[in-house]
Specification:
Number of strands: 19
CATH class of the largest domain: Alpha Beta
Helix content: 25-40%
Strand content: 15-25%
Strand order of the largest sheet: 11-6-1-2-3-12-18-17-19-15-16
Number of helices: 12
Oligomer: single chain
């Protein structure tokens, strides 16, 4: 497949004749690979960007670089100069990198083999699109239960089975064929890193928005969380990320990955974490595998230093659950999936940052944010924005959720700069719109 991300005008259509949406799929007897009960949903993008690049930015110490690269290595010397306050060094610029896709995979544990990376399934699949020119990063989560045609004529299966069948090569080819994109680099993260990382950090603070109870004796799983603020230890973090027994299923777990990431970031920023650097490095070295060469790692680190978080967009490939016997699938919506791919990975954007037609929006709020929601409602009316749904919601993280392709990140920040009650929140693109039909964006005012 001839995919060139440097040509933003060319849009590659998903090959739906040979992917998950062939109608004959529903009558096939798919050979579903048995699913391990020891899986853990990983926050792999956190591990990749926070544990490695985050430590590079936060901890400017000679001992840190020596521990990673060796005392006399050129990489150690170069990184030390990059983050030194006393010596300025001309390094390979991140802005020489082309726009590219990095495949982040979190794999489960296979106790039957010694090698951490053999015979494992990808419980987390995230495509990170980096654009050094605009200093921005987009992230697209692929539900692990997505029903696809595996590459190399390996048949119909869940996308998370590609790695156990054919390793990273089959996984990359399947993602590329399914979405019509090119994967330039990959990062593999093993599930064991979650427990060890959280214990090394001394726990992670998470607000749990609802009761979570589930017990599985076979998997030795006993989840029992009450609503409220919790400091999760390693085992509890595993249970929190593994929980899926609610209406949202895997989509709910994807959201919890993002919330858990926030907790990890805050913990890494604490001064007490400095003394834990050697242990964190050891954990990262043991449980992370990548094809990013050291020379490019310098450019990725430089990119992370200049990253503009306000331009970041995230999305989950849209679809709906489908049950076939005892097997559950996520059936991707073809048109909405294409919208997400074009917008976040190919960076197709509306050129006009101020839509000409009247915008129809929603405001969702928690009990404590009702007063702020009332003020925002008045401000929206003054901006000629119609509010269709104005309703309370049980959520604990604030977001700006775009449902229409004409609602750009630029439009949101332009609007936010003019209003007093619309702070800069995480920008999410969700074309399915489960909040309120026929609206173009939703503002969620929560207690975080």
């Amino acid at each position: 497949m001839n995919n060139n991300l440097n040509n933003p005008q060319k849009v590659y259509k998903v090959d739906y004749n040979r992917t998950f949406l062939n109608q004959d799929i529903y009558n096939d007897n798919s050979n579903d690979v048995p699913i391990s009960k020891r899986r853990i949903i990983l926050i792999s993008i956190a591990i990749c960007c926070v544990v490695f690049f985050g430590l590079l930015m936060i901890f400017n110490t000679e001992g840190f670089f020596s521990a990673i690269f060796g005392e006399d290595s050129q990489a150690k010397i170069t990184f030390s100069k990059l983050f030194s306050n006393t010596e300025k060094t001309q390094l390979p610029s991140a802005f020489g990198l082309p726009r590219q896709n990095v495949l982040i995979l979190g794999v489960d544990d296979n106790p039957d083999v010694k090698d951490l990376w053999t015979g494992t399934r990808t419980d987390t699949i995230i495509i990170v699109n980096i654009d050094p020119k605009t200093k921005s990063l987009n992230a697209v989560s692929v539900p692990r239960d997505s029903k696809v045609f595996l590459a190399n004529n390996k048949g119909i299966n869940k996308i998370n089975s590609a790695h156990v069948i054919g390793g990273i090569d089959l996984t990359k080819k399947t993602v590329e064929k399914t979405l019509g994109i090119r994967i330039h680099r990959f990062v593999l993260v093993h599930e064991n890193i979650v427990k060890d990382l959280v214990n090394a950090l001394g726990g992670v603070d998470i607000y749990i928005e609802k009761p979570m109870q589930y017990r599985d004796r076979t998997a030795k799983l006993n989840i029992n969380f009450a609503p409220g603020m919790h400091k999760l230890n390693g085992q509890e973090a595993v249970e929190y990320l593994r929980f899926r027994h609610d209406k949202m299923g895997d989509i709910g777990r994807t959201q919890r990955q993002q919330w858990f990431l926030r907790g990890v970031v805050k913990k890494l920023q604490e001064p007490s974490t400095i003394s834990k650097i050697p242990e964190l490095i050891s954990i990262a070295n043991q449980y992370i595998k990548t094809d990013i060469p050291p020379s490019e790692m310098l450019q990725y680190a430089d990119f992370m230093r200049h990253l503009d978080l306000s331009k970041t967009e995230i999305a989950t490939l849209p679809g709906q659950p489908n049950q076939k016997g005892y097997i559950s699938y996520w059936i991707l919506d073809p048109e909405k999936t294409q919208e997400v791919v074009n917008r976040l990975l190919y960076r197709d954007r509306p050129r006009n940052t101020t839509p000409e037609k009247q915008i129809v929006a929603n405001i969702m709020f928690t009990k404590n944010k009702k007063s702020m929601a009332d003020k925002l409602l008045k401000e929206f009316k003054a901006e000629n924005i119609e509010v269709k749904c104005f309703e309370p919601i049980n959520r604990i993280h604030s977001q700006f959720v775009a449902h229409s392709n004409r609602i750009s990140n630029e439009y949101y920040h332009s609007l936010s700069s003019k209003l007093n009650n619309l702070p800069s929140y995480q920008f999410v693109y969700d074309p399915i719109n489960l909040y309120c039909p026929n609206t173009e964006f939703t503002v969620i005012l929560a207690d975080d």
